[in-house]
Amino acid sequence: MLIVAGAFVVAAEDREEFVTQRRESMLATRSEPGCLEYVVSADPGDATRVVLFERWADQESFDAHVAGLATAARPGGPAPQSMSMEIYDISGTRSFG
To answer: How far apart are CA 21 and CA 80, in angstroms?
Structure first.
């Protein structure tokens, strides 16, 4: 399993539109093989921050997703001012509680 986690920085007045413009692609990504979770969400504590969180069953599923991004239509709306992303390779999981 792998996790992709990061954030975009957008102008505060553009944040709602930025998130809205990614809703359709977010829902489409969730139906891709190997996608366990994919969320683009406004950070409730920072008006300029949008969080991205993804969980993928394996590297191959994630690679297929990334390959599809090269040919996918880009969402409209405002562009991020910056972004940072990290990929975490997970060797195992356990339930909490």
So the answer is: 12
